[in-house]
Amino acid sequence: MSDDADHIAERKMQFLFALRSRGVTDKAVLTAMEKVDRGPFIRGYFTDRAYEDMPLPIACGQTISQPSVVGLMTQALKVSNRDKVLEVGTGSGYQAAILSQLARRVYTVDRHKRLVTDASEIFRALDLTNITAITADGSFGLPDQAPFDRIIVTAAAEDPPGPLLAQLKIGGIMVVPVGQSDAVQHLIRVTRSETGFEYDELRPVRFVPLVEGLGRDG
Ligand code: SAH
């Protein structure tokens, strides 16, 4: 192998090792994260840190989540290849790209048009044809495509938004960080049954807040 190829293989191994040591153990999730390169989703100054397990800044004052958090949330969502998934908070598009490897179809929405445009460009370049990115206020879900088998929210809400609960199929799962943006938030898994909703608290997390309305750029 050339030095370059050696270096890339080594970084990839460290990346996967960091994921496993932080509790990402699901084989399919690890395979998806091995396959989808995080590099293209990070534009600007931080590309050389793409394989470190840390959140990084992206456009519009937002952040791409820490890879281990992406892995843990994806794992908690228990996605199958028959599932139609809604993601609220496209950001860089990285989480949607990971979901696209596991789900039948992924709809992802962000309140910033610029983020949706940038992410769509990367999905096209990587030939991820089962993702549709839309500019919208995701607190209302995506009524046109509802109901969903799985919903993942990657911004913190004070409570799981009602419209999202309503757009979850019976037997469906939603993963959402809940709490005030400047305090400790908890990752919650909501499972919908015939009789109602069941809530599991998974772990403390830190996300940017879910904000109402569209961003000023769109
Ligand atoms: N999942 C992303 C990281 C998300 S950061 C990734 O993989 O990179 C949180 C995102 O949620 C931001 O891009 C922010 O614009 C978006 N957001 C916040 N409130 C929103 C809302 N009401 N509707 C849609 N998107 C929202």
From TrEMBL:
Q: Which gene encodes it?
A: pcm_1
Residues in the active site? S65
The protein's GO terms of the molecular function aspect are: protein-L-isoaspartate (D-aspartate) O-methyltransferase activity
UniProt keywords (A-Z) are: Cytoplasm, Methyltransferase, S-adenosyl-L-methionine, Transferase
Predominant subcellular localization, coarse grouping: cytoplasm
Q: What is this protein called?
A: Protein-L-isoaspartate O-methyltransferase
Cellular component GO terms held in the UniProt record: cytoplasm
Which family does the record assign? Belongs to the methyltransferase superfamily. L-isoaspartyl/D-aspartyl protein methyltransferase family.
Q: What organism does the record attribute this protein to? A: Roseovarius tolerans
- Where in this chain does the entry annotate a coiled-coil region? none
Q: Which InterPro entries match?
A: PCMT (IPR000682), SAM-dependent_MTases_sf (IPR029063)
The enzyme's E.C. designation: 2.1.1.77
Q: Where in the cell is it found?
A: Cytoplasm
Question: What is the enzyme's main class?
Answer: transferase
| Pfam families per record | PCMT
For this protein, what reaction is catalysed? [protein]-L-isoaspartate + S-adenosyl-L-methionine = [protein]-L-isoaspartate alpha-methyl ester + S-adenosyl-L-homocysteine
Gene3D superfamilies noted in UniProt:
Vaccinia Virus protein VP39 (3.40.50.150)
